[in-house]
Amino acid sequence: MTPRAVLTARGTGLALLGVLPLAFLVVFFAWPVVAIVGRGFTAGGVGAVLGDAATWRLAGFTVASAAASTVLAVLAGLPVAYLLARVRLPGVGLVRTLVLVPFVLPTVVVGLAFRTIWPDGGVLSLVLANAFFNVAVVARTVGGLWSQVDTRAAEAARALGASPWRAFRSVTLPALAPAISSAAAVVFLFCATSFGVVLILGGARYRTLETEIYLRTVDLLDLSGAAALSLVQFAAVVAALVVGAIARRRRDGAARVRSGVDGARRPRGGEWWVVAAAVAVVGLLLTPIVSLLVASVSTPDGWSLAGFRALAGTGVRGTLQVTGWEAASNSLRAATDATLLAMTIGVLASVVLVALRRAPGRLARGMGETMDAALMLPLGVSAVTVGFGYLVTLDALPGDLRTSPLLVPLAQALVIIPLVVRMVLPVLRAVDVRLRQAAATLGASPGRVWREIDLPLTLRSLVAAAGFGYVVALGEFGATSFLARPDAPTLPVAIAGLLSRPGELNNQMAYAACALLMVVTVLAVVLIDRFGAVRGRSAVGEF
């Protein structure tokens, strides 16, 4: 076979591989979102909603609260990033695990944990809860770059008489700026689209664009208003993704000129204050978790496991249509299906993105960047919009998926796929291309090259990505709350149902269910950090 024929065959194979991820994105994301927004425009009234001052006050509150949470997350995450990247002390590995736990906790659990501290909710609790949820994004993203920054420039500044603070401000901080801005963009995206936390802590008093879209769609059936708000939210999401992509490109460029020498060491002098601040942040992160665990075994009559025993029932006067354990079983099945689907799509997409990045010509690289950005969009579009879009479109597919048990896993997979791509893609890019070329020269087919070269080198990251995706699916609440049938709720949906009805037993069941989700989350985080293939990073560090 001539070299030209080989290139043609490889291009054809690459195109075939890319069809499945793109087709999935079009059918199960773009089509439902466009359909629901289109119905809103058809119903009319979008102009009136966009011209209403209340809409922009709502948007202003969403942006302001998300920005405040982002600032807090960045300020809290920087000392932890320093601890993870530059400090060699016993227990740093444990901190690396603990700081990731809040990020993968279900939003319902986070909201309920903060409600045990602030029963009345309020703006402060919303801001703190969203910041709590995203400290790991800052710590892992900035820490990943900080560990690569050459320390000699800062040491030279110190030798010339600069104070530690001035050396950090003038040398280290500019080097970290791309990672900080990238992390801030991702945190802002997550905070601006937060649903479960706002629903539990904000209630009817404090609403964001996300919860208002839910209210207009589910309670008021105001599709035009929901469509208009979705457009406003989508514009904010695209802006955040653009900022993150630009910052990530700058970060990649900076990393190529840095030393790969490990600069971790024991702290000296004033550095101990930074370590103390990082430990204090980790302690604060654990406070809501411990508070919720205590609440799960506390009753007005003292310590009790009544909530856990009550999971065998359906709550006060049949609050749920199934028992708590059946809801947990539903969660496990849905998360398994979603993870298998997301791993298939995400790994295929990662393979295509690596090939496009290494292909000659600007067109291929541009296609790769566009595809990469498109795969991230489901993280920032309202889960309510996607869920309602499923209900109005998927009847057109064979078998009417609206009644299928796969409906919830499909929605959950949309959330997991970007995380899988961000976790697997950098590892695939790090595989030495010369190993693939040598195997191909010896006559190995592309499939065998993948089995013999790529799979062994990426296996650890694949296991970690599967564990990460599984726990995210297990706690997904936004789309699931809209799509899960009353007779087949997942555990987060059951928790929300228990909280919405009065009764001490319902509260105890909700707390107990949250405790179970936290145990699974912690086990998954340990798995992620044990099998993660990129030292000092996780999925949150690659957005």
TrEMBL record:
The keyword Ligase does not apply. It comes from the Bacteria. The chain crosses the membrane at residues 12-38, 58-85, 97-117, 123-142, 175-203, 223-247, 272-295, 338-356, 376-394, 406-428, 461-484, 509-528. Residues 59-242, 328-529 form the ABC transmembrane type-1 domain. It is a multi-pass membrane protein. It is found in: Cell inner membrane; Cell membrane. Gene3D superfamilies: MetI-like. InterPro entries: MetI-like, MetI-like_sf. The keyword Nuclease does not apply. CDD domains: TM_PBP2. Its main location: membrane. It holds the Pfam family BPD_transp_1. Keywords: Cell inner membrane, Cell membrane, Membrane, Transmembrane, Transmembrane helix, Transport. Belongs to the binding-protein-dependent transport system permease family. This is ABC transporter permease.
